[in-house]
Design goal:
- The protein has about 170 residues and is mainly alpha-helical.
- The chain has one domain.
- It has a two-stranded antiparallel sheet with strand order 1-2.
- A hairpin with a 2-residue loop joins strand 1 and strand 2.
- The longest helix is centred in the middle third of the chain and has 26 residues.
- It is globular.
- It starts with a helix and ends with a helix.
- The mean pLDDT is about 90.
């Protein structure tokens, strides 16, 4: 399994243009909420708790993030937890409103992604490696952390491999 630096560096190779990263700050959260919302239909109930594909995705992604890095895993727990709660609110809407809203968020999120990649001049990272779909949310949290002056050694390691943003 790749480590944190390897995952983020690989993803960063496709994301060096600041305009692309900026579109990802909006697009990725929209996509995450939309995916959780679209997967928020009950599979079964366990000890009074409803288990949905969204909850299973949340748990699986948390295992992935926490195995990579405890600090970023905790940040991703907060980000993903808020996204899951927003998705639950959407899922509580009447069927067509829930479905239409989730699809609209998904489409708008991807439109923003592709606009960013137009500026970048490169295809999205997930085209070459599907794990990029999980690394994308982690990448924007890391980029926000770097902007706040956090994890500078990690940022330097990524920039040595992928180059600086422009």
């Amino acid at each position: 399994m790749k480590n944190l630096t390897e995952h983020l560096s690989q993803y960063a190779l496709y994301h060096r243009d600041e305009r692309n990263i900026l579109t990802h700050y909006a697009g990725i959260p929209l996509i995450v909420v939309a995916v959780f919302a679209l997967l928020y239909w009950p599979l079964f109930s366990l000890a009074g708790m409803v288990i949905t594909p969204a909850v299973l995705l949340f748990i699986g992604s948390m295992v992935f993030y926490l195995r990579l890095d405890l600090r970023f895993g905790l940040v991703m727990f907060i980000f993903s937890g808020i996204s899951l709660l927003l998705a639950a609110q959407l899922a509580a809407l009447p069927f067509w409103l829930w479905l239409g809203s989730a699809i609209a968020l998904f489409v708008v999120g991807w439109v923003l992604q592709f606009i960013g990649h137009y500026y970048e001049g490169k295809k999205p990272a997930f085209v070459d490696d599907l794990i990029g779909l999980l690394v994308g949310p982690l990448f924007i949290m890391a980029e926000l952390g770097f902007k706040l002056g956090l994890r500078k050694p990690l940022q330097q390691d990524i920039e040595q491999i992928a180059g600086k943003t422009h």
